[in-house]
Amino acid sequence: MADILVVDDDDVIRDTLGELLSTDYSCQTASTAEEALAKLEAHKFDVVLTDISMPGLNGKELLEKVLEMYPGTPVIIISGHSDHDQARSLMSRGAVDYLLKPFRLEIVEESVRRALKRH
To answer: Which of 61, 68, 74, 113 would give a disulfide with 96, using CB separation of 3.0 to 4.6 Å?
Structure first.
């Protein structure tokens, strides 16, 4: 079973995604990038799904650290802002997908499936 890490400072989104993905995967959640990095040190994850805007380290910084420290781990970015330049930039830096809030849960599930196939 694949291991997924969901990182979002919004309790509702984090819990919703955690519950959704727990039906098919082993899923853990973190409310900050710093908490996510601690979990990544302790456990290998197959996909990291992270919000872009969070207090402390943001999703872009988390993406960079994951790619540096855990190369090959797919990172999916979630954002509440439609910014095509940012999306292109993050994808060129290594993010495997960029999802806009509000999103349909089916879109998230499909993105995770694609990321796992690439992994």
So the answer is: 74
Going by the DSSP 8-state scheme, the letter that residue 27 receives in this structure is E
* Under 8 Å between Cβ of 94 and 63: yes
CA-CA-CA-CA torsion for 72, 11, 13, 21, nearest 10 degrees?
60
Enclosing H/E stretch for 71 = none
Amino acid, res. 58: N
DSSP bridge pairs for 97 = 76
Domains and CATH numbers, the chain: 3-118 (3.40.50.2300)
Read off the pLDDT of residues 47-103 as tens digits, 9 standing for 90 and up.
999 999 999 999 999 999 999 999 999 999 999 877 778 888 888 889 999 999 888
Instruction: Kindly report the pTM of this predicted structure.
Output: 0.94
